[in-house]
Amino acid sequence: MGTANSSNILASTFYLTDIPGYEEFHHWISIPFCLLYLVGIMGNCTILHIVRTDPRLHEPMYYFLAMLSLTDMGMSLPTMISLFRVLWSISREIQFNTCVVQMFFIHTFSFTESSVLLAMALDRYVAICHPLRYATILTPTLITKIGIAALLRSALPVIPNVARLAFFPFCHSHILSHSYCLHQDIIRLACADTKFNVIYGMVMITLLWGMDYLGIFVSYVFILHSVLNISSQEGRFKALNTCASHICAVLILYVPMIGLSIVHRFAKHSSPLIHIFMAHIYLLVPPVLNPIIYSVRTKQIRQGIRNLLFPLKLSSSLM
């Protein structure tokens, strides 16, 4: 009997939500979304290509930046197909198993991005507080281990909550709040005791995001202490300037993430447009803005982009 119920759940269909009240404009609304996705994908792919091909960027800071670009794409790409299927009126239906896979990747890469930002904060701490030992501490082997640990630390805790969904009956409307699947969205449709999922999810978010946020905060306390000991004002500014892009990336991730969590838990009866707006900011803003910020703020990345766009001009000027 349990097997039959589980198979029925796995075969069940959910319905993604469009932008209510603007159905006749969906094709036009899809244009800015399409442009944002293209900007995000092209920006992150450009950074990955530059870091891979430019030997001058084979340093810990840029390896972590490449990890950030990969996690940015991992957050946004799982939602792209389902979003455009809804906006282009192809289909609002999504099968349970597809929904669970999409949900797993979204939550995993969200936590991974937070872990990568913590690693980048530690990178800045070592670069500013222990500059002479920078290359010996952050070796390529250690950076690889940090990347693998960040991914496993983010993926493994998500599995229990996602796996339990296969055993829940869904007897409500099957209509989701967004154009993609989130755990906190689908769990409200279950006709069962979801207390474990709710409590486990809150504990997981508190521990993972909380530990990352605390680690970033402590890193910057030490960084500020070290910067204040620099005698020259120019030296202080230069040291803090290397952290500006990372601070922006932290704000870009955490502010929409916290906002979406607050909306889901404390503003359940607010306008659907607020939920939709916050959900898309949460997934689209970091992949779009992070490459732009690092391209504008980082001289080596700007130079790499110029070399990529104008290789013939640069080579002829050198001759």
UniProtKB/TrEMBL annotation:
Residues 43-294 form the G-protein coupled receptors family 1 profile domain. PROSITE patterns: G_PROTEIN_RECEP_F1_1, G_PROTEIN_RECEP_F1_2. GO terms for molecular function: G protein-coupled receptor activity; olfactory receptor activity. It is found in: Cell membrane; Membrane. The keyword Nuclease does not apply. It is a multi-pass membrane protein. One of its GO terms (biological process) is cellular response to lipid. One of its GO terms (cellular component) is plasma membrane. Pfam families: 7tm_4. Keywords: Cell membrane, G-protein coupled receptor, Membrane, Olfaction, Receptor, Sensory transduction, Transducer, Transmembrane, Transmembrane helix. The chain crosses the membrane at residues 28-51, 63-88, 100-122, 134-152, 198-223, 244-267, 273-296. Its main location: membrane. InterPro entries: GPCR_Rhodpsn, GPCR_Rhodpsn_7TM, Olfact_rcpt, OR51/52/56-like. Putative odorant or sperm cell receptor. Belongs to the G-protein coupled receptor 1 family. PANTHER family: OLFACTORY RECEPTOR, OLFACTORY RECEPTOR 56B1-RELATED. This is Olfactory receptor. It comes from Bos indicus x Bos taurus. The gene is LOC113905578.
